[in-house]
């Protein structure tokens, strides 16, 4: 494969060859950057076992009418003037040639452009060194199909680049040169720019198209169609390489639509997959009738069938790929089917680098508008109905994203699950925070203290749709809140995060159960079941309910997070109203079963604590997080906490802290991963807890 990341397995490449044969693609280039003997250890020959695997792959490709191109990347440390290095390079390529390979590529991309002393003395320029070695290897191998990747050394411009001029003049004319386009990731390919490149290189270039490559951003995936390459380019191209997503299953639509594009070019010399990158060579005269939208619809129809097959991630057991559908439902563990609307949603949310699909566009447009116009909620303007209508549609789309996550996790095709799961999981969690934020705005809670975040130009940050939604939230710059790895064991459980409302009495029961589990022993508050809730939750729910969020799943409430915007004013309000109310509710020694009122009141006063002014200056807000231990997906607790931090930040908080028992290692580790640092120890005061804080 030509990308950075875990190389595809041999079985996956064989499946790819089936796709290519079926879709009319005809050349495959093997060049995975993380194959050590392709790049880092390029001097080392393959072992007998590795030879056997590579020979099998070459034979498999040739049996399906595909040209197999072997690529080597020696540029990181080759000494061009070294006869030893040249001998080792010839030995390595001769070994592959003896396995049956008849086409080769030398890739000099992503390397240091400076030369060592020996090369500087032997060659007039970096280009001269590369071209000299490439020409000699080409002749040594007997003038096979040969591809040279020169990178993008085009300073100060294409037409005035000494590097490109040397390549054009000195590289043997039958050697093809790869070009990335005007940019590393080009939205469109300009006819004028390609004509200029052709003139300088003295041959039509072979485009290395990174349209679907995602190895530069671990949160992005590109499932959209091949597009933005007009048919008029054909007279100035020798071909086009489509660099793929790292995840094998994510490339079905990109390759399918490239094949559709090829279908309309009947006299093509070939289409290739470059490990997987695809070369599409255009005919000289025929006009292209390719339509990306129609091609996408056709690909979606075929992919639907693929997605809903009971396929394991262990490819070697899945004989149905060769035409015999194996019955592996019991092995897969999935049971659900993805609907067409869900597949369209999946593609629309993970479309192309410079273009979102319709669903993603709607998600971002509505979130931006709702955030910008949140002041309408607290007015009597007729526009409040418009705000609530758009909010309802936005929340519905967020729910569809959550359901999509569950359907992918619960689907039959486990191979697709393992490739796509991190992306649908990431977007599910980000959408949950955004949904909770809009629900919170809909309650009229915001003061607009920080103007609800900073506007950013599209594509100025990483993360795709998830990253853009994140940046629209007040805590969007805090990447550690959004970029944790997904859990090892995916769950299909549906979650919802929403603001607290007065009917949520179940919180008292949940916290009471948690207290009994952690403290052990018989329940001592049978006469007054509200005692634990009144102590742990009561002050926040009574005095600042607008900073309380509820986590619920299909079985009901399973967690909550409570916040205090300003601890100083909150403590004064507690003394003025909450503590007196508790004295009235719990008279001394009631029924002889309840702790003395003074003891209870003392505990409540201690819970408020007396925090140093230096702490409250930087961390004016406080939080409390509770979740049932049955909550398997720990990431959802992170998402719940992020919803609260979003609300606190939106109303001007610059920092938040929480108190944790030093023995609660799990909670300490959880908060530390979210950017909380220890700012106060119990020995500095009369309490035992460790105080952790983070700036917002």
UniProtKB/TrEMBL annotation:
<feature type="domain" description="GH84">
    <location>
        <begin position="1"/>
        <end position="266"/>
    </location>
</feature>
<dbReference type="InterPro" id="IPR051822">
    <property type="entry name" value="Glycosyl_Hydrolase_84"/>
</dbReference>
<dbReference type="GO" id="GO:0016231">
    <property type="term" value="F:beta-N-acetylglucosaminidase activity"/>
</dbReference>
<dbReference type="InterPro" id="IPR017853">
    <property type="entry name" value="GH"/>
</dbReference>
<dbReference type="Pfam" id="PF07555">
    <property type="entry name" value="NAGidase"/>
</dbReference>
<dbReference type="InterPro" id="IPR011496">
    <property type="entry name" value="O-GlcNAcase_cat"/>
</dbReference>
<dbReference type="GO" id="GO:0102571">
    <property type="term" value="F:[protein]-3-O-(N-acetyl-D-glucosaminyl)-L-serine/L-threonine O-N-acetyl-alpha-D-glucosaminase activity"/>
</dbReference>
<dbReference type="GO" id="GO:0009100">
    <property type="term" value="P:glycoprotein metabolic process"/>
</dbReference>
<protein>
    <recommendedName>
        <fullName>protein O-GlcNAcase</fullName>
        <ecNumber>3.2.1.169</ecNumber>
    </recommendedName>
</protein>
<keyword id="KW-0378">Hydrolase</keyword>
<keyword id="KW-0326">Glycosidase</keyword>
């Amino acid at each position: 494969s030509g990308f950075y990341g875990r190389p595809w397995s041999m079985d996956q490449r064989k499946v790819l060859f089936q796709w290519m044969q079926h879709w009319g693609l005809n050349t495959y280039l093997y060049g995975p950057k993380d194959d050590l003997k392709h790049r880092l250890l390029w001097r080392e020959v393959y072992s007998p076992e590795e030879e056997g695997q590579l020979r099998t792959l070459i034979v498999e490709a040739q049996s399906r009418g595909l040209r197999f191109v072997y690529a080597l990347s020696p540029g990181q440390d080759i000494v061009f003037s070294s006869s030893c290095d040249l001998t080792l390079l010839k030995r390595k390529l001769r070994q592959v040639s003896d396995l049956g390979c008849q086409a080769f590529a030398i890739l000099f991309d992503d390397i240091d452009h400076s030369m060592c002393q020996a090369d500087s003395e032997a060659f007039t320029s970096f280009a001269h060194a590369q071209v000299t070695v490439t020409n000699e290897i080409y002749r040594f191998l007997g003038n096979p199909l040969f591809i040279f990747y020169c990178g993008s050394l085009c300073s100060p411009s294409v037409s005035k680049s000494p590097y490109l001029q040397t390549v054009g003049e000195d590289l043997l004319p039958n050697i093809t040169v790869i070009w990335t386009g005007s940019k590393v990731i080009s939205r469109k390919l300009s006819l004028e720019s390609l004509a200029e490149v052709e003139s300088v290189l003295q041959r039509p270039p072979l485009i290395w198209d990174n349209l679907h490559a995602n190895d530069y951003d671990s949160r992005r995936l590109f499932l959209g169609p091949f597009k933005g390459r007009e048919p008029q380019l054909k007279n100035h191209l020798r071909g086009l390489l489509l660099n793929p997503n790292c995840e094998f299953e994510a490339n079905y639509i990109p390759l399918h639509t490239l094949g559709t594009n090829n279908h309309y070019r009947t006299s093509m010399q070939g289409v290739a997959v470059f490990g997987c990158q695809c070369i599409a060579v255009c005919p000289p005269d025929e006009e292209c009738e390719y339509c990306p939208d129609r091609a996408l619809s056709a690909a979606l129809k075929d992919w639907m069938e693929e997605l809903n097959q009971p396929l394991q991630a262990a490819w070697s057991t899945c004989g149905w790929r060769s035409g015999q559908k194996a019955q592996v439902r019991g092995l897969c563990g999935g049971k659900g089917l993805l609907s067409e609307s869900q597949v369209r949603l999946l593609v629309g949310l993970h479309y192309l680098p410079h273009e979102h699909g319709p669903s993603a566009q709607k998600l971002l447009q509505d979130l931006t508008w709702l955030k910008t116009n949140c002041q309408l909620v607290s007015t009597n303007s007729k526009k409040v109905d418009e705000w609530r209508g758009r909010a309802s549609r936005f929340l519905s789309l967020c729910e569809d994203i959550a359901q999509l996550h569950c359907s992918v996790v619960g689907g039959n095709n486990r191979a697709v699950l393992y490739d796509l799961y991190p992306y649908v999981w990431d977007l599910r969690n980000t959408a949950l925070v955004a949904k909770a934020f809009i629900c919170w705005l809909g309650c009229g809670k915001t003061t607009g203290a920080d103007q609800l975040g900073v506007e950013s130009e599209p594509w100025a940050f990483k993360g795709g749709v998830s990253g853009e939604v994140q940046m629209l939230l007040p805590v969007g710059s805090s990447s550690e809140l959004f970029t944790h790895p997904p859990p090892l064991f995916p769950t299909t459980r549906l979650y919802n995060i929403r603001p607290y409302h007065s009917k949520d009495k179940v919180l008292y029961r949940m916290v009471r159960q948690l207290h009994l589990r952690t403290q052990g022993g018989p329940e001592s508050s049978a006469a007054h079941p509200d005692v634990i809730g009144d102590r742990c939750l009561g002050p926040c729910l009574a005095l600042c309910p607008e900073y309380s969020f509820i986590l619920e799943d299909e079985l009901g409430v399973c967690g909550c997070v409570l916040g205090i915007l300003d601890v100083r004013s909150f403590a004064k309000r507690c003394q003025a109203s909450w503590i007196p109310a508790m004295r009235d509710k719990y008279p001394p020694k009631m029924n002889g079963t309840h702790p003395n009122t003074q003891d209870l009141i003392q505990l409540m006063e201690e819970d408020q604590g007396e925090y140093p002014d230096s702490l409250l200056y930087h961390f004016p807000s406080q939080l409390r997080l509770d979740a049932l231990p049955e909550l398997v997906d720990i990431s959802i607790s992170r998402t719940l906490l992020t919803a609260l931090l979003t609300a606190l930040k939106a109303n001007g908080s610059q920092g938040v802290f929480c108190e944790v028992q030093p023995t609660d290692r799990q909670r300490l580790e959880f908060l530390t991963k979210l950017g909380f640092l220890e700012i106060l120890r119990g020995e500095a005061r009369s309490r035992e807890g460790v105080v952790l804080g983070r700036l917002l």
